[in-house]
Design a protein that fits this description.
- The protein is an alpha/beta fold and about 200 residues long.
- It has a single domain, classed as Maf protein, CATH 3.90.950.
- It is built from 5 helices and 7 strands.
- The protein has helices at about 15-25, 45-60, 95-110, 175-180, 185-195; strands at about 5-10, 30, 65-75, 80, 115-125, 135-145, 160-165.
- Strands 1, 2, 3, 4, 5, 6 and 7 form a 7-stranded mixed sheet that branches.
- Strand 3 and strand 4 (about 80) form a beta hairpin.
Length: about 200
């Protein structure tokens, strides 16, 4: 593959790596863990800010065109939590199970079995740390979170997230279907169009 198609994917999240590998098949993806690059400090207040911070950090450390994402679960009825703190909702170093259990606890405190929610993904692509014109795209999938956990696939909140028009959780659908309907898939399709234009 041409050197120009080599792209850094600025994440160390194994679940995201697997999904992006299937979404960006035409590129020679290099992962930051392969290059010994540590995670960027995510101290932004929005998904976009954090994605841009990750992209700038990755581009600076690698010298490669860098794609970074920031994504998470948003529950408007829980004051838009966990939002940008989705990976650490139950505290630093929290597991996916810890984070899901905290959501379930919040629902039970309110005597609720479910609440409307959505997954969001922001993708940012940048040529270099100082690129003044990053390209970006977003993707969203609406559904609800429930106190019932089911499914063996996916990661994060997938076991308790039920997409609209689905009777099963995101963790119960096939990886092939997930890679067509997920927030990451929607963002990736839009991002590839932008990348082609630029």
């Amino acid at each position: 593959m041409e050197e120009s198609k080599k792209i850094l994917l600025a994440t160390s999240n194994e679940g995201k790596l697997k999904e992006f590998k299937k979404l960006f098949t035409e590129f020679d993806l290099v992962y930051q863990t392969e290059l010994g690059i540590n995670d960027a400090i995510e101290d932004g207040l929005t998904f976009f800010e954090n994605a841009l911070k990750k992209a700038r950090h990755g581009a600076k450390e690698s010298g490669l065109y860098t794609i970074a994402d920031d994504s998470g679960l948003v529950v408007p009825g829980l004051n838009f939590e966990p939002g940008i703190y989705s990976a650490r909702y139950a505290g630093e170093g929290a597991s996916d199970l810890d984070n899901r259990n905290k959501i379930i606890e919040e629902l039970k405190k309110r005597n609720l079995e479910s609440l409307p929610a959505y997954y969001v993904c922001i993708l940012v692509g940048i040529n270099s740390e100082n690129d003044p014109m990053p390209i970006y795209a977003s993707g969203k999938i609406h559904g609800k979170i429930r106190t019932i956990s089911e499914g063996d696939g996916g990661f994060g909140y997938d076991k308790i997230f039920y997409p609209n028009d689905s009777q099963t959780s995101m963790a119960s659908i096939t990886p092939e279907l997930k890679n067509t309907i997920s927030h990451r898939a929607i963002a990736a399709r839009s991002f590839l169009i932008e990348l082609e234009r630029n």
